[in-house]
Each structure stands twice: as C-alpha cells, then as structure tokens.
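Q: I'm writing up a methods section and want to include an example of the input and output format. Could you take the sequence below and give the corresponding predicted structure tokens, formatted cleanly so I can copy it straight into the document?
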Amino acid sequence: MSALQRSLSRIPWAYVARRLLIAIPTLLVIITVAFFMMRMAPGGPFDGEKKLPQATMDAINAKFGLDQPLWKQYTDYLWGVIQLDFGPSMKTLGKSVNDMISDGLPISLSIGFLSMGLAIVVGTTLGIFAGLRQNTAGDYTVMGFAMAGISIPTFVSGPILILLFALGAGIFAVGGLGTYPNIGMTFHNMTLPVVTLALPQIAIISRLMRASMIETMRSGHIRTARAKGLSERQVIMKHALPAAILPLVSYAGPAMARVMTGSLVIEKIFGLPGMGTYFVDGAINRDYTLVMGALIIYATLIVLFNLIADVLYALLDPKVKYD
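A: Here is the clean output for your methods example:
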C-alpha cells in the first residue's frame, strides 16, 4: 500500500460527510439571521440626504423586489442562493454580486494564501528554533520580535513598509494591481501587502510553536526515543515535530479562512479591490445583496477550512478518532 493510499484510508470519511451535512443547516441559520437583521435595521439602501420622489422609490423597490412581503423576499433570495445566484448589487449599477465576488475573491485569496504560507513557514521555523533554545539569547530575540509583531497593528506596519521599500528604496510598488489589467497581481506590487498581512500571523505562530515544542520535548515519548539511542535530529524530526505541530493545525484552520477572505486594512492601504473592501463598502452603503454574498462566502470558507484542519489533525495524530 502506497503512502497516499495509507493517508486516504486514515481520513475519517464518515465524519467528513457528517460535517458537510451539518454545514447546510449552519449556513441556512447564518443566512436567515443576517437577512432579517439587515432588513430590521433602520433605513435602506436607497435612503439618502435628499429624498427621491415617491414614484422613483416605488420603481426602484419593485426592481429589487423590496416591495414584496418580507417572507417573499427571503424565500426568493434563498432560492437564488441555492442556484448560486446572489442577485444584483443594489448600489453598483450593472454588476451582479457574483461578478463582484469573482473580481474580489481571487485577489483576497491570492494575498491571503501567500501570507499564510509565508507565516506558517517562517513562524514555524522561528518557533522551533526558540523552543529548542529555551531561555537563550536566540529565544529572547525571537520572542521579542514576536511581541513586536503582535503589538504593532497592520495599519502601522503597512505604511512603514511602504515608506521604506516603496517610496524610499523603490524596490516594490506602493500597491494596487499590475500595470496592465489583464496581468493582475505581480510580484512587484503584491510583496508588501503579503508581508504586512503575514507579520502578525508569523508572531502568533512562532509563539504557538515555541510553547508546543517546549512541552513536547519534555514529554515521555521523547525521553523514550532518546533512550533508544536515536540521534537528536531523529528525535526532533520523527517524534517531536509531528506532535508539536498539532496546535498549529488547529489554529491554522480558522486563521486561514480569516486571512484568505480579505483584510479591509490591508486592501485599503494598498489599494486592492478585494473581498474585505467589498464587504465593508456594502455594509456602509446598505447594499443588502453584496453583504449577504460576502457573508455566505466567508461562512463557507470558515466551515471548509475548519474541516480541513480536523482532517489534517487526524492524519498527523493516529490517536485522534472521529466517531
């Protein structure tokens, strides 16, 4: 049996199926609560300082179905979601929510995926280094940088990186998409937002891995491995790391969903039209359909990434059983 077949045989498929089935009513509850909360809030998407003529308001409400009873609006919207149609944007004329999501989501996913990848690689390396050198100068240095990374918000670190590496050294672009629209994101203009978004995650992961590594190196199975005469490298790579990395897997699931669905601060600082920007602009403008579409995408990704984290946990730790 190959390694791939052994890994697939250890995946708790029944548990995965149950989680996916549970996700359906979970998303339904989220959609229902969000839908009625937005409708119950005072005001509407077409309210402004200057009131529109009643005939115009009636025509707009009829176009978007806002003249229908609330239960009818809900069932119509739910039927559209089932067909993966999130409806037209109420504030951006000529664009559907699906179009806006297809424009913004790839940008947020690209930045988020690269940021989390960078954070996991660098944070894990630093955390292992600090954990194996507890209470040394190297440990204190890494934890000092980690505390700085946690303490400094991205709306401070982002402009600092722009001043140093874009406006100062001229190595990277200030932000935005590529020079040509069909190129999209490039290394030149995506490096700074990726690094800015990764910095706090690097700090968190390094602290998490340090604590986990220290605890693991003191555990009984590590003492047993050393007693068998294994080299320190074998002890660390084969016995300590698989156990120490488990808390990171639990953290990475929701963190991945949170980072990959867009960061308003990062997208605003670097001029990126991602999901975070669309979500907040939709909330400010009371664009019901845009907010609902973004919320559904967020909830779906959180469910999926948490499920992936649970499956990885089961693969890394044979003692974990999902009945």
